[in-house]
Amino acid sequence: MATITHEEAHVHAHGPELQHQFETPEQQKEAATLGMWAFLVTEIMLFGGIFMAYIVYRWAFPEAWEESAALLNTPLATVNTVVLLVSSLTVALAVNAAEEGNKRRLLTMLALTMLLGLTFLVIKGYEYSEKFAHCAGAKDPISWITGSDLHESHECLVPGRGFLFPEEHGATGGSHGAAHTASMQSGHQLFFLLYFCATGLHAIHMIIGLGVMSAITIMALRDRFSPTYFTPVEIGGLYWHLIDIIWVFLFPLFYLV
Amino acid sequence: MAEQQHTNAHHHGDRHTHISRGTYYRVFVALMVLMVLTVAAWWVEKNLLHIPGWLAVTIAMSIAIAKTVLIVLYFMHVKISSRMTQVYAAGAFVWLIILFVITMGDYVARGWPPQPGPLP
């Protein structure tokens, strides 16, 4: 009985956020941070598999890599890199605002972060739709949607049966016959397969990150955080920074070959 | 082990280190400079002078690793985290290096001097 009374007193001294299995708020925060890092390690290994495949196939097809990367939209990807780096800053500032108990600044920073995350996804979506529009024979996504100016597709960079690497960019130009072209294109197709897998998985993480940020915003609106308790902001921020780090590697590996 | 962990956590609580907003802004400026550098290096390689592929990859990856170190240490607070968290963060990259080094060790050693290309 005495222990229960002691524990109850303890809970009241620290507020309702301290779970009964922890002795101090510091211990609870430490456990949450460590647990998040253990999860982030598995995330790094998940992307590590894709990076491993990338290294193996770049080693196998160095020329195909250089020719293929030239067809990606580097200016848009550079804008996206800036967007993500700024969003990492706003997340860091959000954690700082939560630490200082400044609710107004915390909400502003969270809103900015989500806006930047959405901007990233819109730009990424435009890049993808450009590639799909080319397969449909349209010049750009707009003319693909309106259905105007459609012609025979001479470039299709989406892996699959319709994959067609434009002749003028290939070093092995002038070769005819479907079977020959197909084998010559395997390196190029692998590049775009890895491109869609890696950036697609990254985009899925971005969508989850937006969900996490929305949940934290709702918690902040409900006054769940205080200068002594802001663990969700902190570990949600860790997830967002991880997404940024993955992009820091995807950007030079795919766009700056 | 558990005891040591406890001491660390306790120590961390006492220390209560804190990264100031000024540091965040400075780290952000450094990240932007590195971003411009990596794009500039790529542009120079494509348009001005031809440098070997391995050197271009080394430059791009060194810049990416520098950016990662800045983000992990400052934005992700690993610099002021407990030892245990630091070990976890470093551990991820150690495992990645094991994955890459052992696999590529095989590919590189299939022909000597190393010859890029699909395995026979």
* Content of β-strand of chain A: under 5%
- As a percent range, the share of helical residues of chain A equals over 70%
> Counting H and I runs of at least 4 residues, what is the number of helices of chain A?
9
Total of domains of chain A: 1
- How does the overall form of chain A come out from the CA principal axes? elongated
Low-confidence stretches of chain A are 171-180
**Which residues of chain B form runs of ≥5 with pLDDT under 50?**
1-15
Terminal CA distance of chain B reads 50 Å
> Helix amount of chain B, in percent?
over 70%
Number of helices of chain B: 4
The top level CATH class name of chain A: Mainly Alpha
Topology-level CATH name of chain A: Four Helix Bundle (Hemerythrin (Met), subunit A)
The total count of strands of chain B amounts to 0
The CATH fourth-level homologous superfamily of chain A: Cytochrome c oxidase, subunit III, four-helix bundle
Give a verbal description of the structure.
The complex is a heterodimer of chains A (257) and B (120). Chain A is mostly helical and 257 residues long. Chain A has one domain: Four Helix Bundle (Hemerythrin (Met), subunit A). Chain A is 74% helix and 0% strand. In chain A, helix 2 runs antiparallel to helix 8 (186-221) and helix 4 (74-99) runs antiparallel to helix 9. The model of chain A is unreliable at 171-180 (pLDDT under 50). Chain B contains 4 helices and no strands. The N and C termini of chain B lie far apart (50 Å). At the A-B interface, helix 2, helix 4 and helix 9 of A face helix 1, helix 2, helix 3 and helix 4 of B.
Task: Provide a concise account of the structure shown.
Chain A is an all-alpha fold and 257 residues long. Chain A is 74% helix and 0% strand.
Break the fold down into its secondary structure elements and pairings.
The complex is a heterodimer of chains A (257) and B (120).
Chain A: H1 2-14, H2 25-60, H3 62-69, H4 74-99, H5 103-135, H6 141-146, H7 178-184, H8 186-221, H9 231-255
Helix pairs in contact in A: 2-8, 2-9, 3-8, 4-5, 4-9, 5-8, 8-9
Chain B: H1 2-15, H2 21-47, H3 53-75, H4 83-109
Helix pairs in contact in B: 2-3
